[in-house]
Specification:
heterodimer; A: mainly alpha; Histone, subunit A; two-stranded antiparallel sheet; about 5% strand; B: about 475 residues; Amidase signature (AS) enzymes; eleven-stranded mixed sheet; about 15% strand
Chain lengths: ~100, ~475
Amino acid sequence: MTDIDIKWLARLSRIKFSDEELKRMQGDMVSIMELMDSLKSLPAPDDADFGNAAALKELRADEVRESYPPELLVSQSAGRKTEFGEGENFFTIPKIY
Amino acid sequence: MIKELRKKLDARKISAEELTAEYLKRIAGLDKSLNSYVSVNPNAALAAKESQKRIDAGKAGMLTGIPVALKDILCTYDMPTTCSSKMLEGYTPPYDATVVKRLREDGAVFLGKLNMDEFAMGASTKTSYFGKTYNPYGKGCVPGGSSGGSGAAVAAELCAASLGSDTGGSIRQPAAFCGVTGHRPTYGLVSRFGGVAFASSLDQIGPLAESAEDCALVLQTIAGGDINDQTCAGKSFSAADVDEKRVKGMKIGVITELMGADVDEEVAAAVELAVKKFEALGAKVRRVSLPMLKHAVPVYYLISSAEASSNLSRFDGVRYGHRSANEGVFEEMISQNRAEGFGWEVKRRIMLGSYALCSGYYDDYYKRAVKLCGVIRAQYAEAFKDNDLLVSPTAPTTAYPYDEVPSNPAQMYLADICTVSAALAGLPSVSTPCGYSAAGMPIGLMLTGRRFDDAGVLSAAAAYERDFKCIPPALLNGGGL
């Protein structure tokens, strides 16, 4: 795993690392991928059973159900804003760019 | 234990308030050194009072007034749910998990939330943001994980039963390390709604308790269909279907791949003795080979980490969770929130999952792992043509001291070899104590059954437990940790 790979993976994972942490993670990932690479020599049939995730039942009816009060949902956000008036509940984020 | 407590409560030999107060007193005394609880329910006494009203009205269910505790991965609308992570420190969900709701409806009293490896990623509780839990059997050992608090609290009698979650062994391995019984239900028997998702195709919620009978009584309450979980099969479970007599004539296969050189001699010897006991109980025992199980660890880590990288993307610090003081622009803020909120092991799994899923590597890693998971399922299906139950150790070793937790991640992951396969195949699997090492640490026996034959595995475990003599943990004998 190269320096470029590990920086790219950190970006994909949306996790900020210091240079020192990135080096440590790179070492860990090399060790982990050695274990994962042990599967490469095994024949992998195309007709495999795709498992638990395929056990979906029928979908539930598409109908309106009662939801939670907005103020309750917003109450757990550290960036909540409620000063825009009664009944106004917002999550806030910084500028996109 | 639950049936005994039920009798005492119904006969008014003890009230629900007195019983809860007794457990809270024990927690206040013993949990300072054990650290099995992340938080104690401040409303437990009030809940006990309500349960007593139900008992007095003659409307008690099986768990009414029974003090239980919950792994801190299960959402509770009236208590924080942290997943033992800084990311969710102080977070209180707006709703109950379905399993929590069902226990509440039956009148169970929640004593609190139990410690775990952060986001259920680990096998020791070492990765908890709120400190390590110690094994009640002492010697500075781990209680196992990720449901380490759930195992330790049951062993130390700090709750009558607990709930844990098992993605690759997180109920069974701590049960084995702490000398209690832990059951991973068939995938789809118990709703996952409100259990914070780690790997959705593998996660299952299940009980840890003093015995298979107690596990069955808790399972009976939490099992069943749920409109909020489309992978829930809609099947119910009755504790009355657990019947020790089923062992007679049962065909039991011992998995040769999980009895090899990487299993401690003491552990293998205890499992062999247990197998002889099953023969004495009238079971027909044979050796069975499932060759792909040797490769199950990397298959499990690729699938579970891929799903985790996706599931944990919701933790961005915007709607809930840790928000950094150093925000920057939007993307920087999210990366910073996650850098500060997640511990190292969680970051490692997210990185591995992102790698396994990304363009260029997807076929070599994630897709290959899914195909090989299919091979594992096929080998189990073949084995269950001639066997009713498969037996192995729950873990290759007994609990080890914290300072011996491997620093190499791959080496640490390989210790999950015994438990991950049943999870990948979605099978019911129980761990029950079958012996003790020379150092006095418990050894776990794992029994795995056909899909939805949870009653079969619990019947066999109950039959085995009938004459098994449990040695109480050092903590209860006045010993240190």
